[in-house]
Specification:
Blueprint lengths: L1 H10 L10 H34 L2 H7 L4 H31 L5 H14 L1 H10 L5 H18 L11 H7 L3 H13 L6 H29 L1
Length: 222
């Protein structure tokens, strides 16, 4: 879906973009839709996978096995990272071959790695959403989170088009820095230290909350 949106933005909604800015427009739009794609996968796919595993009794099986439960989550996160990486490859290939987006090899790699890092808070958020028993309720919750977050992060439209209060909110969101840092890398710059810290703090904070909520859930079940 994000690939379709990327083509729509760059081939249909590119009217009015000056010729000299088209290359930047294509590159920035590619990064924004790549970030959005990883967000969708991290939130929807990861949360639904955890819910489905719980329904099939995977966690009960883990308690009977010698493997620590943490290994289960590590393997799931690594699998999700692989899926996200493949999504990035697809969108980057479309950007390169359809819109002639040009970057050197290391810039492609570092931009992709940064987007994966920038969406870590979304992966941790998915672990909280997965605590919802009903997949349909979880899907609704994911939709309520995803679209407002993507819009406020400037993934659909530049944040300077929004009121000042929305712009201030955007600069406090990890997904804003996920795309912003990748754009900076694509332009030959280093990502802001603030962005790196914001992403890390969100990730750790949400993971701590997830561990607490999961522990409370287990206590209630006993």
């Amino acid at each position: 879906m994000p690939v379709g949106f990327y083509l729509l933005f760059t081939k249909v909604f590119n009217m009015g973009v000056p010729e000299e800015y088209l290359a930047i427009f294509y590159k920035d739009s590619m990064i924004q839709m790549a970030t959005y794609s990883v967000m969708i996968s991290s939130l929807f796919s990861f949360s639904m996978t955890l819910i489905e595993d719980r329904k099939q009794g995977v966690k009960q099986f883990l308690r009977l096995s010698p493997l620590p439960e943490s290994m289960y989550y590590v393997s799931k996160i690594l699998t999700q990272f692989l899926i996200n990486s493949l999504l990035l490859v697809v969108i980057f290939l479309v950007g390169h071959f359809v819109n002639d987006v040009q970057m050197d090899f290391m810039t492609w790699i570092t931009s992709a790695v940064w987007i994966l890092y920038g969406c870590l808070p979304i992966v941790s958020l998915a672990t909280i959403v997965s605590l919802v028993k009903d997949p349909n309720t979880a899907s609704v919750l994911n939709n309520m989170i995803l679209m407002p977050l993507a819009i406020a992060s400037g993934l659909w439209w530049p944040i300077d088009m929004f009121p000042e209060v929305v712009q201030k909110i955007a600069t406090g969101l990890p997904t804003f820095y996920a795309a912003q840092g990748a754009k900076q890398l694509a332009a030959g710059q280093l990502p802001d230290v603030k962005g790196m810290l914001v992403i890390f703090i969100y990730f750790v904070g949400i993971m701590v909350l997830s561990i607490y909520l999961n522990g409370r859930r287990e206590e209630i079940k006993r």
